[in-house]
Write a structure and sequence with these properties.
Chain A: InterPro entries: Rab-GAP-TBC_dom, Rab-GAP_TBC_sf, Rab_GAP_TBC_domain. The structure holds two protein chains of two kinds. By secondary structure, chain A is an all-alpha fold. Chain A has 20 helices and no strands. Chain B has one domain: P-loop containing nucleotide triphosphate hydrolases (Rossmann fold, 3-Layer(aba) Sandwich), CATH 3.40.50. Chain B is globular and about 45 Å long. The chains are: A mainly alpha, B alpha/beta.
Chain lengths: 332, 215
């Protein structure tokens, strides 16, 4: 219930209480899906408490022991991250593993400068998309509310910080996801860490003119499909289906755009620690998960895409009760 | 959360006579995805920006023919053109959308989008439809209907004003486009080739008991 503050501080319509899931998304329907509104048993609660204690010990006060721990026991860290970072520590840990904390400390006052004094050519584009980013989350729902203002500030600041990238649709979902776990300034520096490559390969090529890195990743993904799922690869080739039809948003938003939120944040835990290879792995795991259904469908071109695309989405929809996508499988 | 291709999933096994590929283009935020979602389902909701491409399939009967429309929805932001340009290929119909409350979205159609069509469309006879969206915001309108009609004439395209919000003219938009496509012999032929293939597959599925349609 760590995200409760979001729900409490910014009630949108005080008269009509909004029902939200534990991440702050407005509930659409009554049926309970795993991880959304399930109440926890006492033993699960204790287990979670133990996990949090372990994590606290590992990172130390405000992250003071983190670097030391990671140097001594990198495998323990990797294993624990794959199991999922406790939600109440997620924001802090994300900043530690992405290297954004260091950037923040090295650049005092820079963010404020970018937000207050600079103007950006992308301002109108950003404004137009603000209300279209996570519109079902309580933090972002309110027009000109604190959520929308923070999102605007982060995106505008980035578009000034790196004018070659500016603002590209899709960045809003990444910034939005980050803002649910940290302050504006922290979210901004994490965005910088990712795009400029503080720890892993820089991501800015996903957004630069011509989207060179998207093209590269799609090309590589195509080959990986052929290599690891040869039957499906051949099928896709026959039906003229290429990854740009289904995977560009996986890379551009790192699954923050149309993926069930509780899975997206687990992917982000691992992505921030292990890098973009995780996006490839999850993508391949998704195709593998739907493999038999995908190969079954022939018929004309677009039908297969629709089917492939829909299966990927369908199999992850809570309404279909199939949360079987095993993240363990994805990372192995 | 964001839009998906979900609503088309039930259509894969139904039969149809003709199959056409339609493309939606225009500036970001003019309502391309909204038009499409309104046409496909009955819901009118606020949508996330489209990243790259998305598509939906709609089966409908026009002029006594059962049609399958595969409608490709594209991201409007300039940066994505590198991804969307390949989807013009083979489209029988292209819908050019602008927002009647934002003039630049209208001028961009002739300055940018019509040129993209010239450059990337492979179908000489491809039917174009100019659509002015958001006519429900009448008080904010800055592009008149007459201006729309004039541009449509210049582009040699059909023309309609719509509102995805009130559903006004949304179905007409796609139906008129489909009717017009069926009037063009070369496009009709392309569409029926796929249709025939579909019927063939259906028969195969019937004959092989229980095994699906592939070998």
């Amino acid at each position: 219930m760590e995200k409760k503050r979001v729900a409490d501080d910014h009630e949108v319509e005080p008269a009509v209480p909004v029902r939200v899931d534990r991440f702050g998304f407005v509930k659409q329907e009554q049926n309970s899906a795993e991880g959304l509104c399930r109440s926890r048993s006492a033993s699960e609660y204790e287990r979670e408490e133990r996990r949090i204690r372990k994590w606290r010990k590992m990172i130390g006060v405000g992250g003071s022991d983190w670097k030391h721990y990671i140097r001594r026991k990198p495998h323990v860290v990797k294993r624990r991250i794959r199991k999922g970072i406790p939600d109440c520590l997620r924001g802090l840990v994300w900043q530690l593993i992405s290297g954004s904390r260091d950037l923040l400390l090295m650049n005092p006052g820079v963010y404020e400068q970018l937000v207050i004094y600079e103007t950006s050519a992308s301002e109108l584009d950003i404004i137009r998309d603000i209300s279209r980013t996570f519109p079902s989350h309580v933090f972002f729902r309110q027009r000109h509310g604190p959520g929308q203002r923070s999102l605007y500030n982060v995106l505008k600041a980035y578009s000034v910080f790196d004018r070659d990238v500016g603002y590209v649709q899709g960045m809003g979902f990444i910034a939005g996801l980050l803002l649910l776990y940290m302050s504006e300034e922290d979210a901004f520096w994490l965005l910088v860490a990712l795009l400029k490559g503080a720890v892993h390969a820089p991501m800015e090529g996903l957004y630069l003119a011509g989207l060179p890195l998207v093209q590269q990743y799609l090309y590589q993904f195509d080959h990986l499909v052929k290599e690891h799922l040869p039957k499906l690869g051949e099928h896709f080739a026959q039906e003229m289906i290429n990854p740009s039809m289904y995977a560009s948003q996986w890379f551009i938003t790192v699954f923050s755009y149309s993926f069930p939120f509780h899975l997206a944040i687990r992917i982000w835990d691992v992505f921030l620690y292990e890098g973009v290879r995780i996006v490839f792995k999850v993508g391949l795991a998704l195709l593998k998960y739907c493999h038999d259904d995908l190969v079954l469908f022939h018929c004309c071109q677009t039908e297969v895409v629709s089917v492939s695309y829909n299966f990927v989405v369908l199999s992850l929809e809570p309404a279909h009760g199939s949360y079987a996508l095993d993240l363990g499988l994805a990372y192995s | 959360m964001a839009s998906t291709g979900l609503s088309s999933s039930n259509s894969s096994s139904s039969s149809y006579d003709l199959s056409f590929k339609i493309l939606l283009i225009g500036d970001s935020g003019v309502g391309k995805s909204s038009l499409l979602v309104t046409f496909i389902s009955n819901s009118v909701e606020d949508l996330s920006p489209t990243i790259g491409v998305d598509f939906k399939i709609k089966l409908l009967t026009v002029g006594g023919k059962k049609l399958k429309l595969t409608i490709w929805d594209t991201a409007g932001q300039e940066r994505f053109r590198t991804l969307t340009s390949s989807y013009y290929r083979g489209a029988q119909g292209i819908v050019l959308v602008y927002d009647v409350t934002r003039r630049e979205t209208f001028t961009d159609l002739s300055d940018i989008w019509a040129k993209e069509v010239e450059l990337y469309s492979t179908n000489q006879d491809c039917v174009k439809m100019l659509v002015g969206n958001k006519v429900d915001k009448e008080s904010e309108r800055v592009v008149s209907k007459e201006e729309g009609m004039t541009l449509a004439e210049e582009l040699g395209s059909l023309f309609l004003e719509c509102s995805a919000r009130t559903r006004e003219n949304v179905e007409q938009c796609f139906e008129e486009l489909a009717l017009k496509i069926m009037e063009v012999p070369s496009l009709l032929e392309e569409g029926s080739a796929v249709g025939k293939r579909n019927i063939l597959k259906q028969k195969q599925v019937h004959h092989t008991s229980g095994g699906g349609c592939c070998s």
